[in-house]
Design brief:
Number of helices: 31
Number of strands: 22
Largest sheet: 20 strands, parallel
Structural class: alpha/beta
Radius of gyration: 44 Å
Keywords: Membrane, Transmembrane, Transmembrane helix
Helix content: 25-40%
Shape: flat
Strand content: 5-15%
Protein name: F-box domain-containing protein
Length: about 850
Amino acid sequence: MRSCRSISYFIFQIIAVMGNYARIYELFFVVPIAYILRKELLSSGFREILCFYELGDGKLKGEIMVSFSFYPNHFYGCKPYLLQNRGCLGCPKVPFMTNVKKPTGIAEKDSITNKASVVQDFWSSSTYEMDNSAAQSQLSASSVSMSNPNLDGHCSSGSNPPEFVNRGLLLWNQTRQQWNGDKGSSHRKKAREPAISWNATYDNLLGSNKPFPKSIPLPEMVKFLVDVWEEEGEDVLYHGVSKYQTCEDSDVFLSLGRRVDVYFPSCKRSRVSAPFVFSEQLSKKQQTTIDVLPDECLFEILRRVSGGQEKSSCASVSKRWLMLLSTIHRNEQKKAQDFDKSGGSLTRCLKGKKATNIRLAAIGVGSGNLGGLGELSILGNSSSKVSDFGLKAIARGCPSLTSLTLWNLSSIKDEGVTEIANECRLLEKVEISQCPAISNKSLMAIASNCPHLTSLSIESCSNIGNEGLQAIGKSCPNLKSISIKNCPLVGDQVVVSLVTSASSSLMKLKLHGLTIGDMSLAVIGHYGLALTDLVLSDLHTVTEKGVWVMGSGQGLQKLKSIVIVNCNGVTDLGLEALGRGCPNLKQISVKKSSLLSDNGIVAFAKVTVSVESVILEECHTVTQLGIFGLLVSCGSLKTLSLTKCLGIQDLPMIIPSGLSPCKSLISLSICNCPGFGNFSLALMGRLCHNLQEIVLTGLHGIKDSGLASLIKNCESGLTKIDLSGCVNLTDKIVSDISMVHGETLEVLNLDGCRSITDASVVTVAQNCFSLKELDVSKSAITDYSVAALACAEHSNLQVLSISGCQVSNKSLPFLKKLGARLIGLNIMQCRGVSSSAVGLLGEQIWNCDILV
């Protein structure tokens, strides 16, 4: 009996572990277990097995009772009772008496009654659904007793065997009463009316995301779904194969008729394939997989997986598992993994076709084991397949996210961004560009849940307007940088709210292509107390008044850099006001201003006290007078850059003898200004003696004589010279440069100087010992120049560009020698060098990047 009790306890543990899913998947779990155990027990001689399984109080409760009587090599049969579970646990294979005769004698009737009393007690302690089955149970018990005469005769050859007392059943009833208490019929719960209406359909009940009017018990919902599946005609669940391999197997599970002593209600259709082949050879198993389980079961299993390594392993099983793992919220996990409250350390960037929901789900599941995701950039295009599902996966799995960049993602909507804002509350930097479906709702969610936000950039988002950005300004006290570009719904209200609300923290402000006016600039000038960087671009409605008020507001005391691009309000008066009102201004850049003249440049130079860099681009009304007036008047100027200023003309000028030179200027850049020629260079040489960097590109008017005066007057020693596109320069000026500044020169660019020959390269190789970068592309050099560079002593050359030059395979040995110290080599468009030679060279100087 001890072994019987241990087996009984083992069966109870199996049913308890099955939990809430045992009822739904009875065919998958309960039937195979009952079938195997029944055969093993009956083969050992146990008399009967009684089991039931009930549902009470809306919660699934598995209860099992096993009663055994041991008769060696004999048994009466198996009686399975399944309560409220519309399935079958199994039935005996021994023959049953189907034609039960009515007992005629009184003693016979008493015997039947006594033998059925135990079973009747069991029914009386069960749930209310089986109360009316007592009579049927008594008749069933009598049929069993009368249908096994051979067995009774074997037990006692001379007389009838003693009456059997099922002690296991008695013990079970006592234990069950302790569990449930002494509940009489008066305390039994009334049948609850179904929560789902009889005429409910799948679309009406589950076709929307609205919550149910009242809670629906799980068994009732499962029954409803199974009925729906049956109506859909999903009959082929076994791929055209019979559910049962033999007739004997079908007898185990199918009803044998009303007169048999086992309760057999109508069975529901199974949703999964059975894991065993129900035949006499139980060792044979079907080749099944856990994927036959529905998502609900897998979800419950996977949410109990703890640890990043275990999750990563599960995610590697299949895409289905990966997607299920990505839907598990931290609150739904049995043991959520801790994350770094200061932010993650990983950086991930998905571009183009690689930007997919699957990759985002993988990042969300796997990054927790590697330090947590800190920065995520999704740079999409027309082929990108990223939706809100991917962002939700990141939100659930990456609470340590601090930086998010979304670019060119038309399928991303407010739902995904809102989920990120709700779950990733450590966000500090957000960039959203070309996402037309994102609206104010997303920004309001960020404002409400991300108090650590320091940087926000919005570009080309047509549905983002004043409401969302105003919420950002009011709710993000740590906001330091904001950029708004090409958002047509943004107006003056946004600028006013941002600047006034975050006046103590906002340091960088960029406004590009907005429909704002002078009011915004006035607010910036008065309340931008912490601003250090200001960019105003394509503000066509701003006038001279707005720029003047901004400069005169005395609120930009900490401003260090200002960039104004294509704003009609930038005039001489406005530029002068900026010079007065920004005492700490270090850099000013004015581009595409047609109203700025020499007077404004000179006036600004006189009133500013700290400006170090002036950049003028496409300012066509600025001439040579304004440039030299700036050099003379601004004593702190270090960098001057002129690009495409067509108003500059190369005219001779007389400089007064008492005029002091500009000693502070160290960098001069003049690009694509066709009027800048030899006279202008000569004047520069007389005024600027401490130049260290000279960039003169696209100046077709300068020659060796004009540049020589500038080169020779640079007393500090030049470190960088860029003369690309100056087609009239010859070897003479290169010789002068190498002789005067050979010891300090580090970068020399002669790209496109067609008159430069091998003589220039030989001079450079002999005199420029500090040279690190040399570009002689599209010049007249040959293999001899490469040989001269390779044979130079004390050479520090690291980058060499000979693109488009007349070099051949003869240079390969010298390039190999140079490759010992080169990190970059450009031999593009060198037709004399064969592809095989390039391949061989690449193998020999593998540490050098070669452009071919």
